[in-house]
Amino acid sequence: MDELMALCDRLEAARTAREATRDRLAAASLARLNTPDPETFPADARFALDALPALTTRPDQIKQFRQTILNLAVGETGSAGQT
Q1: What is the pLDDT of residues 31-63, one digit of tens each?
Q2: Secondary structure of residue 13 in the 3-state scheme
Q3: Alpha-carbon torsion 64, 50, 20, 14, what sign?
Q4: Sequential DSSP letters for 28-66
Q5: Residues 72 and 33 sit within 8 Å (Cβ to Cβ)
Q6: Nearest-CA neighbor of 29 among 16, 15, 43?
Q7: What is the pTM (predicted TM-score) of this model?
Q8: To which H or E segment does residue 25 belong?
């Protein structure tokens, strides 16, 4: 029983670490889209689109990406229209 509990603890720790990594990656991706650099924006946008399934596994993540897309659509992110 102790071995099973230890495995459950390891699984939970791995899940927590994975979610923390996913949160950091999503935050970095959104930051690049919200403050676009005209030279890197196409690559940044392609990365975000390619990684979208992995970066939007929770409702709060979907909401953040949706807001970023809306901001880009209406031009509220600085120089995104200059690409």
Answers
A1: 999 998 999 999 999 999 999 998 899 999 999
A2: helix
A3: positive
A4: HHHHHHHS--TTTHHHHHHHHHHTHHHH--SHHHHHHHH
A5: yes
A6: 43
A7: 0.74
A8: helix 2-34
